[in-house]
Task: structure prediction
Amino acid sequence: MIRRHSVLAALAIAVVSLAGGTHAAFAADKVCKLEISGNDAMQYDKKELDVAADCTQVELTLTHAGKLPAAAMGHNWVLVKTADVTTVANAGMAAGLANNYLTPNDPHVIAATKVIGGGQTATVTFPTSKLTKGGDYTYLCTFPGHYVIMKGIFKFG
Ligand code: ZN
Result:
């Protein structure tokens, strides 16, 4: 009888899990929100972003606080391993604005927003399972020439 009860209990848990529906229903999921902005002077407002070790998802919102259009002063937010900054920036330059200055499906890109112009915002959400705690990461803008100034340190854990 004990055995049968535990089977029923397991079934009950499974039903509750299914009923929970969306991903956010799982208590273990912790979405950590970050904000950064870029301006018409080709600058981000932050030089470093930190994500705590217990975050399971990161939701990054980029705001373009300037007025210039994306074609003239576009900004995106792209997360890569620090060792990949030059590779991703050069490939992005060649890819053009139509591709948000990123090579489509570039395996070096961990997360990225689209390119935006003045007054616009863009958000990207990604799981921290893509990151290693204590890893060496950099975020950058891949609009041609911007990454020399528009980059910062990204820390996880
Ligand atoms: Zn930029």
About this structure: The domain at 28-156 is CATH 2.60.40.420 (Immunoglobulin-like). The CA atoms of residues 20 and 26 lie 8 Å apart. Residues 38, 74-75, 141, 143, 146, 150 surround zinc ion (CB under 6 Å). Residues 2-20 form the longest helix (19 residues).
